[in-house]
Amino acid sequence: MDQSREPHFVQSLERGLAVIRAFDADHPELTLSEVARACDLTRAAARRFLLTLVDLGYMRTDGRLFALSPRVLELGYAYLSSLTLPEVAEPHLERLVAQVRESSSVCVLDGDDVVYVARVPTSRIMTVTINVGTRFPAYATSMGRVLLAGLPDEELDKYLARVKLVAFTARTVGTTSALRAELMKVRGQGYALVDQELEEGLRSLAAPIRDRAGRVVAAMNISVHASRNTVDSMRRDLLPKLLETAAKVSADLQVATPRRTSRLAGA
Amino acid sequence: MDQSREPHFVQSLERGLAVIRAFDADHPELTLSEVARACDLTRAAARRFLLTLVDLGYMRTDGRLFALSPRVLELGYAYLSSLTLPEVAEPHLERLVAQVRESSSVCVLDGDDVVYVARVPTSRIMTVTINVGTRFPAYATSMGRVLLAGLPDEELDKYLARVKLVAFTARTVGTTSALRAELMKVRGQGYALVDQELEEGLRSLAAPIRDRAGRVVAAMNISVHASRNTVDSMRRDLLPKLLETAAKVSADLQVATPRRTSRLAGA
Question: pTM here?
Answer without folding.
Answer: 0.75
